Amino acid sequence: MKRADAPDQAERGPVQVITRAASILRALEDQPAGLSLGQIAQRVDLARSTVQRIVAALEAEKLLIAASPTGRVRLGPTLLRLASSVQSDFVSLCRPWLVKLSAELSETVDLAAIKRDYLIFLDQVIGSQRLRAVSSVGETFPLYCTANGKAYLAQLGNDAVEELVGRSYPARTPTTLTTYDALLQDLRRIRRTGVAFDREEHTVGVCAAGVVLRDSLGNYLAISVPVPAQRFYDRQTEIAEHLLATKRALEDQLESAAA
């Protein structure tokens, strides 16, 4: 039985305290309304008094903040700043691989993050071709008609796809997939091959291939190669192979960094 009035010997060890603090932070993930100390204690299997001490220390660092006047707490703004820093680091980590991929293909390469039901471009390496496809960093795109968006949707279950994007979609071009069933058929192929294609589905005259991977926090990011349609169809297999090789290399680097 736990003693609520005094910490045990293991708790006094700094490593054990960090482990318990991390458990408390994880317990509050996806809890925008926060949790009470009792709820946290139950989820992490610690005495309420232990949770109270650790929560107080985390609140002092703004890693947790009050979620209600009744003592509930939730994740704090310091975590957002730390997460933002990690994403910036990931962009920096990806940059040499984006440059390498662009040089191999002589095409533009984009890095995008997924924000609920749309993509936002984080970085871009512009290709050396005189006729090239270019978007702006910070620009947003829908998921259902872009290569990087469909690469992400293919990671989800069918029900989650329907919940996120619905069952019918605006036709941006004559080749846009406008129904859930047509999109699902394409996602099945993407799940088999690991590469998604946009064949003039978002913009007439522009195609793309895309892959998706996860950063060290588990967030999805997508790498895509947009290409003018007149060059794309003869090169789509080559582009897909280079994209998959880049994805594997980045995943290996992330795995090594985490080891």
Automatic annotation (TrEMBL):
Listed GO MF terms: DNA binding; DNA-binding transcription factor activity
Example GO BP: negative regulation of DNA-templated transcription
UniProt superkingdom: Bacteria
Residue ranges of domain IclR-ED in the record: 78-259
Domain (HTH iclR-type) ranges: 15-77
Pfam families xrefs: HTH_IclR (PF09339), IclR_C (PF01614)
Record-linked PROSITE patterns: HTH_ICLR, ICLR_ED
InterPro entries: GAF-like_dom_sf, HTH_MetabolicPath_Reg, Tscrpt_reg_IclR_C, Tscrpt_reg_IclR_N, WH-like_DNA-bd_sf, WH_DNA-bd_sf
UniProt entry keywords in alphabetical sequence: DNA-binding, Transcription, Transcription regulation
Gene3D superfamilies: 3.30.450.40, Winged helix-like DNA-binding domain superfamily/Winged helix DNA-binding domain (1.10.10.10)
Name the UniProt record assigns to this protein: Transcriptional regulator
